[in-house]
Structures are given as C-alpha cells and as structure tokens.
Write a structure and sequence with these properties.
about 325 residues; globular; 5 strands; single chain
C-alpha cells in the first residue's frame, strides 16, 4: 500500500512483484497513514487483515500465529509482539528493554481482562467487519492504532495478545528522533483517551471502562506529572534525619523492578546479558519521558494540533531466529 510516495517506492515494488498472484500493489494520493490503511483494508478480499509498518519485518510464522487466535466471532483483533530489530547503540538498546519490560508485558496482563488499549501498528491482525463497525482508522489522532483499538473494544469485541507473533521494528537511533517519536505517541494517546473519554468508569464497557481507561489516566497521564516532584522529595529526604530509610526503600524498589525485568526477559526468551543496560536506562529514561509528557500535555491544553512528521529510516532491521517473508 503506497501512500503517494514521492520517490520510486511504488515503481520499484510494482516491478518486483509484477505478475505475482499473491501480491497486489496499490497506490493513492498522499493522505496519511490512516487513510492509506483504510484504502488497503477496503480493497482486501478476505475477512481478516494484518497491518504492519513499512519499517517492520515479521518472523516467518507471525501471521500463522496471529490467525490461530481468531477462534470465534467475538475476537475483533489480535495484537502481536513488537521487538527492536536494530539494536546497534545505547538508544536502541534502551528501547528494546522498554518494549520487553513495559509494552509487551502490559499487553500480556491486559489480555486477561480484555483491556488491551493498543494493537500496535507494527503488527496487528483485525477482523475486517470489526474495523468497519468501529468506523475504521481515523485522521483526528496521532495514535490511530490506539484510537481504533479503543473503538473496537467499545463495540463489544474481544482483543487478544499473541506473544508468539513477533515483529522486528526499526527504533529511532538518535535522541532527537526518539523524542520526536515519543512525543507523537504521547500526544496521540492523550487524543485517543479524550476522544473515548465516555468509556472512563463506564460499567457498560466492563474492564476496559473500569480498568483500561483509568490505567491510561492514572499511570500514563496523572502520576507521571507528579513523579518529578516525588524524585525531588526523595533527594531532599536524603538530607533529612533518616536518609538510610529512604535509601533502603529505593534499593528495594530497584530490586523489585529488576526482578520484574528478569521475569519479562524470561517470558520473551531474551538474552539476560542485555539487562546490564537497564541500570543507566532506569536513571535516564523516566526523565526523558517526563519531558515528552509535559510537552504533549502543554500542547494539548493549548489546543494545538501536531502532525506525524518525518522520521529518518536507516533500514537496519534484522529478523532474529527466522528469515523474513
């Protein structure tokens, strides 16, 4: 699906797959990712679609595993597992740790109560009728995958997580590109939350309304706003009359965090040697995300809109353990 690219993408792909009955190459005037996805889904001939990003490669059994989860008509979508495919510097290794210990673990947990709020754009399978019933991908958020996932849940469908379906994506390789991507994510989640705010604490939507939406509000918006204050209070406390008690609590927190990370690495069959990078990551990552969240909320409160922008791609993604197809 070519969204009006200005280079030779469409021509090169068309030439490569000319005459291949298994591949249909489509193009349209540039209109953004959401419009391109809708165009492609509308032209798909089958009842299910698998959406991936242009910078993503799938393990050769990923689609098979995704499809095994559509066991009945209530399953509206299935989220795959995203991993970093270009771990070539500290920035990308930190992102790899975050994908393993946070994003993928969150989806495993919320799968149990049907409250997955994001079927990742890098790998997600959808029942086409569920997409149409929910209104398709929309152009009014920067997190079209999050918004559509929420609307599919609101239609009463079940969304599953498939840990076996693995996609390797290209993570930003520079700090500037990372901040740009995460701002888009943060701003898009805020937009999606506000757009679907009627589901918040609404028993009609079961666990999604009572757990999934409050989780976004509390842990992705409210608490991070006050976390810098908590960090400051901890530092001030070190100069108080009981500094060792604060040190003990902090060490306990770090150890628990590290234990959870080990469990996450075990569940995803990752190399434990990578955990050495978690030490500097935990001291720097949160501060970067605070900055991004403050910037996104400030922009949202001012009523300003943002665009997708352009992220520089390197094509450094490699698929581990299997060849991409």
């Amino acid at each position: 699906m070519d969204d009006g690219s200005k280079d030779k993408t469409f021509q090169m792909v068309s030439d490569e797959f000319e005459g291949n009955p298994l591949v249909t190459v489509l193009t349209k005037p540039n209109g953004g990712k959401a419009s391109a996805l809708n165009f492609g889904i509308t032209h798909a001939h089958n009842d299910f679609v698998v959406c991936i990003d242009a910078d993503t490669q799938l393990k050769d059994d990923a689609v098979y595993h995704l499809m095994t989860y559509f066991t009945d008509a209530e399953i509206g979508a299935v989220a795959g597992t995203v991993k970093v495919g270009n771990e070539n510097n500290l920035i990308t290794r930190w992102q790899s740790i975050e994908y393993i210990t946070a994003q993928n673990m969150d989806r495993r947990a919320f799968d149990l109560i049907n409250s997955i709020t994001v079927v990742p754009g890098a790998i997600g399978a959808f029942r086409k009728s569920a997409v149409f019933r929910a209104g398709g991908f929309t152009l009014d958020t920067l997190a079209e995958d999050c918004d559509l996932t929420m609307r599919i849940l609101r239609q009463g469908y079940i969304i599953k997580n498939c840990a076996e379906a693995i996609a390797y994506t290209e993570a930003p390789e520079t700090l500037g590109a990372l901040l740009k991507q995460r701002f888009r994510w943060s701003f898009g989640v805020i937009q999606s939350f506000w757009k679907n705010k009627s589901a918040l604490f609404n028993k009609k939507y079961k666990f999604f309304g009572m757990v999934g939406m409050p989780n976004i509000l509390i842990f992705q918006i409210v608490l991070p706003l006050f976390s810098p204050l908590a960090d400051l209070m901890m530092v001030i406390g070190l100069f108080g009359d009981k500094p060792m008690k604060i040190v003990i609590y902090y060490i306990a927190f770090v150890l628990i965090d590290f234990l959870v990370a080990i469990i996450a690495f075990w569940m995803e069959k990752e190399d434990y040697k990578k955990l050495v990078y978690i030490i500097p990551q935990r001291f720097v990552w949160r501060q970067l995300m605070y900055y991004i969240l403050f910037k996104a909320i400030r922009k949202a409160l001012k009523g300003e809109l943002s665009t997708w922008g352009v992220l520089k791609r390197t094509g450094n993604v490699s698929v581990k353990g299997a060849a991409a197809k």
